[in-house]
Amino acid sequence: PAWCCIVLIPGLTTSRFRLYLTFWTVILFRPLFNKIISKFKKSFTFGEGCLVTQGILLVLYTSALRLYNLESYKTLYMAKKVAHWIDWLIIHSSNPVSISLLASWAVLSGLSILVVILYKVKEWPVNTKTRKIFHLSVLLVYIPGLLYDPELLYVATVGATVLFILLEFFRWSGKLPWLSGPLSNYLSHFVDEKEGGSLILTNIYLLVGVSLPLWLWPNELHKPAPFPLYAGLISVGVGDAASSIVGTTLGRTHWPGSKKTLEGALGGLLAQLGTGLLIGHLSGIPIKMSVFSTICLATSLFELTVEQVDNLTLPLVMYSGLLLESILL
């Protein structure tokens, strides 16, 4: 694989650092994957372990490249760089639109926390439909963010993901009993049958899955966001939720070898198409329905065949299709 990188990405050979970094990134995949799978038994399927390992290595790779490309490593220069980022964030988030977005996101976050607390205190039963409440919060966060300020949404989602990972680390490790105890108590009430190990990752998968197209977008962000950036929102935020709700309510015809139903897949497909049309109307982005329908159908069929947590894979399938469509057509 390392030699393939050199052949497929000739620019690597012009930088000895990039070449070494690519080699070590590829070489480290297997030992890191084995460590994660053995350390957190039953927390990851093979596919999830691969995606998580690739994600960790990708973050480390890009971080190392950015540090390498800095003009200086002196403390004063680094301090100025951090100050510049803070100034940008303050200025960028001080306009009325950004303030409204931040306020709405704070309210939605608070309401989501209240839902978790309320269900635990009242000992209300939690099922698949109940968990999809959080998909509604995702919709209300991402649609306005992508329409009016994708850059601010990018920063907010990265910050929220880091916070979620830190909270899960403290919950799993028990290093802060005053925090880990309540987190385990409340979050365990929402754990589904796919969470078999010591980690609770569904909430992180949802956040990362919806954010992946935004993070992977190779060009500069502008408003409204390009249509491929809505891939996570359409496939997971809407499609997966609709498939689950319709499947558990009206599902009768099961896909061979699966608990999932064709009625659920159809519901998810129609929900994705409707959401795409709504986003196109709100953003003014022209949508080629024949191509978009094919991509939604492929995503729905893929969702039917996957038994693991699909919050990470569905956005990649739809994003790849939409990105390819934007390049070729």
Describe the structure.
By secondary structure, the chain is mainly alpha-helical. The protein contains 14 helices and no strands. The protein has helices at 2-8, 16-39, 46-68, 75-92, 96-121, 128-131, 133-148, 150-173, 177-187, 202-216, 231-250, 262-283, 289-305, 313-328. The radius of gyration is 21 Å and the shape is globular.
Taking Cα atoms only, what radius of gyration do you get, to the nearest Å?
21 Å
Order of helices and strands, N to C? HHHHHHHHHHHHHH
Distance between the termini: 31 Å
> Major sheet, described briefly?
none
Class per helix and strand makeup: mainly alpha
User: In which range does the helix fraction lie?
Assistant: over 70%
Number of helices: 14
Quaternary state reads single chain
The low-confidence runs, each spanning 5 or more residues with pLDDT under 50, are none
The average pLDDT is 87
Q: What is the approximate shape?
A: globular
- The count of DSSP E runs of length 2 or more, i.e. the number of strands, is 0
Q: Determine the strand fraction and express it as a percent band.
A: under 5%
